[in-house]
Amino acid sequence: MTPIVGIGELLWDVYPDGRKVAGGAPFNFAFHCQQLGHETVIVSRVGDDDLGRELREEVRRLGMTDEFIQTDPNHPTGTVRVSVDAGGQPTYTIAEDVAWDYITWDEHLKRLAASATAVCFGTLAQRQSVSRDAIRRLVDPTTSALRVCDLNFRWPFVTSDVVKASLASANWVKLNHDELALVPELVDWRIAASSPDERTAETIDRLKSDFPLKLICVTRGGHGCKIVSEWGDVDLPGVPVNLVDTVGAGDAFTAALLVLQLERARPLSEVARSALHYAGRVCEFRGGTPRIDRADVERAAFGRLS
């Protein structure tokens, strides 16, 4: 088994009307990698409660294994209250001291780490020391897996130490334009440039020089993405979207970028274009894990199948 691994929060996104959708950035990422055709597992922890049992059942219903989802006897399954404004932008209220804060490193995860093709992790699940230790062990730079950090800041659960350690452990980093603007303060850089474009360029240059990153991807919401990488640089505009909400769109973009780049079938510019269209399709549904046909995305991106 050489899977892609997502590690971190697995939870229920709860909407104002009471509807629940399985979520959490690492889970959304893992779901989309699986949907795009690559074997993927989610590493997380749920409570020994009805919500946890329902979440396991939902993971299996979505076609994924729950083998690496631990059960916590002392902490409840995670939940997030989601509200979406008129522009489709979500606001999250994240429950604290929940099961996914206590992902525990064990021999099972050690064997998984040795076999993984790639591991994707973020900063939110590192807010507590237990999960932080498990994540750092799984993304140890001595392993052969590609290590993808999707920074995914969720305030107030962002610390300088976690951001620095995460960037130091990663080969790839994905962040949005707002997060990029915050990086210099979090990693104690002084950026001399004054204009927004110059600050962006200088921050990307510092990321390249100070951390072992082979790819830096900055997403710009509806305005596309910029990628700086060892395979070349890409700057693409946004794609048309019939917007419902943006929950999970960034996770879907990361998944598509990774899976398609691992396939090594196309130039990075085409990979990124497909990833933008895939994330755009996610925005046309409510929740972060809609069923999407890859062939439809390819037709939208290129007018043909890949």
Could you list some keywords that capture this structure?
13 strands; 38% helix; four-stranded mixed beta sheet; nine-stranded mixed beta sheet; globular; 10 helices; alpha/beta; UDP-N-acetylmuramoyl-L-alanine:D-glutamate ligase; 306 residues
Task: Explain the overall architecture.
With 306 residues, the protein is an alpha/beta fold. The protein has one domain: Ribokinase (UDP-N-acetylmuramoyl-L-alanine:D-glutamate ligase), CATH 3.40.1190.20. It is built from ten helices and 13 strands. It has a nine-stranded mixed beta sheet with strand order 5-4-1-8-9-10-11-12-13, sandwiched between helices. The chain has a four-stranded mixed beta sheet with strand order 3-2-6-7. It is globular, with a radius of gyration of 18 Å. The two termini are 26 Å apart. The model has no long low-confidence stretch (mean pLDDT 92). Pfam families: PfkB (PF00294). One of its GO terms (molecular function) is kinase activity. This is Fructokinase. It comes from Fimbriiglobus ruber. InterPro entries: Carboh/pur_kinase_PfkB_CS (IPR002173), PfkB_Carbo_kinase (IPR050306), PfkB_dom (IPR011611), Ribokinase-like (IPR029056).
- How many domains? 1
By DSSP, the count of extended strands is 13
Multimeric status of the protein: single chain
| Largest pleated sheet | 9 strands, mixed
Main-sheet strand order equals 5-4-1-8-9-10-11-12-13
CATH H-tier superfamily: Ribokinase
CATH top level label: Alpha Beta
Give the radius of gyration: 18 Å
CATH architectural designation: 3-Layer(aba) Sandwich
State the helicity in percent bands. Answer: 25-40%
State which percent range the strand residues make up. 15-25%
Coarse shape: globular
End-to-end Cα distance: 26 Å
Helical segment count: 10
CATH topology term: UDP-N-acetylmuramoyl-L-alanine:D-glutamate ligase
Query: For the residues shown, what is the average pLDDT?
Result: 92
Helix/sheet category:
alpha/beta
Order of helices and strands: EEEHEHEEEHEHEHEHHEEEHHH
Ranges where pLDDT stays below 50 over 5 or more residues in a row are none
Protein name: Fructokinase
Family: Belongs to the carbohydrate kinase PfkB family.
Domain Carbohydrate kinase PfkB: 18-288
InterPro entries: Carboh/pur_kinase_PfkB_CS (IPR002173), PfkB_Carbo_kinase (IPR050306), PfkB_dom (IPR011611), Ribokinase-like (IPR029056)
